[in-house]
Structures are given as structure tokens and as C-alpha cells.
Design a protein that fits this description.
globular, two-stranded antiparallel sheet, 2 domains, six-stranded mixed sheet, 298 residues, Rossmann fold, 11% strand
């Protein structure tokens, strides 16, 4: 039987929950549990929406093999945070850890996949490769995952809850998903602070520009004129070196990512109820039966 696998980018979903609840006025007791409560709500919603019969949580490592190759990888994500954002992170991150290290395993979820030095993207990619005959729904806002789209693999944005399929990708970009890794190799990845091929400037006082996503798409689809600086930069030896460097960073999975095998979950209804009681989730406890059905708790 073909399985229907819900493949969650844990941090993408957790951060979406964090931002969604950031403007909510919380009492002192709620501050330490609002991420966990919101995560439960989102998980319940996604299971109803997708009708998945298996669930995988993909985790990021604290260390990064990509950063060893490219020291400024994701560097800007740690900079320029406002005091309010720093405060929110201090409330949220302990709850992220409690979910992955305690709560989800205690409920009986057994497929929390991650490995030292690798990202959730890598674990997700390996699962897609190994279970290519199953139906897979990736929950992530990361456009790097577009390279994984197939007739059996689609995505859901955790913020909009909308499906994004291989047909949607073709209609938007007019290329096949397997070409997306070449787009990222040429154009870099702004969100990960990976720069695309640099475009030489006659005036050295001007800020350095780089080939970006649109330019990479134009080059790969034959729309970029050969006499342009961008085209010549991509074709140059220096450009090829940048492309090869970026390939190692953007192609999924990263070299050396271990494989993962999905195991049956051992989900416990009583443990879920106990956790809700300990955390004071009274609205769930007032009507727990729908949760029992959706989460497939026993």
C-alpha cells in the first residue's frame, strides 16, 4: 500500500507558530507553553488537511557542515534582531527543545530525523529519495525544497496552508524542478547568505552586484543575451568556480547525509492527555476525542 507521509520541517513550522502568536497578549504562565500549544493546533490541522498516515519531523543540527565550506553561510540570520525579537526567541527556543527532546517522543512519535552537521532539508531530501513511490507532503516555506518536487512530492506552506505542486512550479518558473538546483547555484540563496556569480563593475566604487534568481532563470532558459556582463560572468572561469562552490551548498541532500528509515509510531492517548494536563491546555482537555482520532492516539 502506498503511504501518505507528512514530512515536517520542524523549525520552519515552529517559527511560523512563533510569529503567528507573537502579537498575542500572554499571561505569565502562558509564556512558557504558547509555542507548544500552537504547535499542537498546527499539527492537528495538518493531519486533517493531508490525511497522512505517517509523520516525520526533520530537525536542524546546531553545527553546520555547509558553514565549514562557506563561513558566512546564514550569517545575517543572527544579526540585526530587535529587542522584541530577542525576547520572543528567549521564550520560544526552550519550547522548541522541549517539543523535540521530550514531548513528541513521550507521546510516541519515533521519526524525528536529524544528524550532526546537517539540516532538516537534508533529512527531508533523503526521505524523498528513499520513499519515492509514496505520497509525500513537505511542510516548509523553504524554496530550496522546490528541487524535490515530483508527481509524488508536493509542499504546503506553514504560513498560508496552501499546496504547492510540480504543476504550480512549472507554471511559475517554466522549468523542471530538477533545474532548480542550477538556478540556486548560479543565483545563490539570499535567505542563506549564499552569493551568486559576481558581475564585474567598471566603476570599482560601486557596490558589487551578483547574478540573482531572475538572472539565473534567464540564463538557463536562453533569455539572457550573450553580450551582457551577467552572461559573460557566468561563462567565465571565475563564474564556474562560484557555481561549483554553490552546488555543494544548495544541492539536496548535502554530501554525506545519512539515510533514515521510517518506523511505526507508538502513540499513547493517555500520555498526550497527561502532557496537556501538566501544561494546562484546558481547551484541548475539554474535548479530547477529536484529537485522539486525528493524531491516531491509542
Amino acid at each position: 500500500m502506498t503511504n501518505r507521509i507528512l514530512l515536517l520541517d520542524f523549525m520552519s513550522l515552529a517559527h511560523t507558530t512563533k510569529f503567528a502568536l507573537a502579537k498575542t497578549k500572554l499571561s505569565k504562565g502562558e509564556e512558557s507553553t504558547f509555542i507548544i500549544y500552537g504547535f499542537f493546533l498546527k499539527l492537528n490541522f495538518l493531519l486533517k488537511k493531508t490525511r497522512a498516515n505517517q509523520i516525520v519531523f526533520a530537525l536542524d543540527s546546531k553545527t553546520s557542515k555547509r558553514k565549514e565550506l562557506y563561513p558566512t553561510y546564514k550569517e545575517k540570520r543572527k544579526q540585526n534582531k530587535t529587542p522584541a525579537q530577542i525576547k520572543l526567541d528567549k521564550l520560544a527556543y526552550p519550547q522548541f527543545i522541549k517539543l523535540t527532546d521530550e514531548i513528541l517522543p513521550e507521546i510516541g512519535y519515533r521519526n524525528l530525523f536529524g544528524a550532526e552537521g546537517y539540516e532538516a532539508d537534508d533529512a527531508i531530501s533523503q526521505v524523498c529519495k528513499k520513499y519515492k513511490d509514496d505520497q509525500i507532503i513537505i511542510v516548509s516555506s523553504d524554496k530550496d525544497m522546490y528541487q524535490l518536487l515530483t508527481n509524488n512530492v508536493c509542499m504546503i506552506s506553514p504560513s498560508t496552508n496552501k499546496y504547492y505542486t510540480i504543476s504550480d512550479f512549472r507554471n511559475e518558473y517554466h522549468i523542471e524542478p530538477k533545474i532548480w538546483k542550477r538556478v540556486k547555484s548560479l543565483g545563490g540563496c539570499l535567505s542563506d547568505c549564499v552569493k551568486g556569480v559576481p558581475i564585474p563593475q567598471k566603476d570599482h566604487t560601486k557596490k558589487q552586484t551578483h547574478v540573482a534568481e531572475k538572472g539565473a532563470l534567464n540564463y538557463l532558459t536562453g533569455k539572457m543575451k550573450p553580450n551582457t556582463k551577467a552572461f559573460q560572468a557566468i561563462e567565465s572561469r571565475a563564474g564556474k568556480d562560484i557555481i561549483n562552490r554553490n552546488k555543494a551548498l544548495v544541492i539536496l541532500p548535502f554530501r554525506g547525509t545519512p539515510t533514515f528509515s521510517i518506523r511505526p509510531d507508538h502513540l499513547k492517548y493517555k500520555k498526550f492527555v497527561d502532557i496537556c494536563e501538566n501544561l494546562g491546555f484546558n481547551s484541548i482537555l475539554a474535548n479530547p476525542e477529536p484529537w485522539k482520532s486525528t493524531l491516531k492516539l491509542r
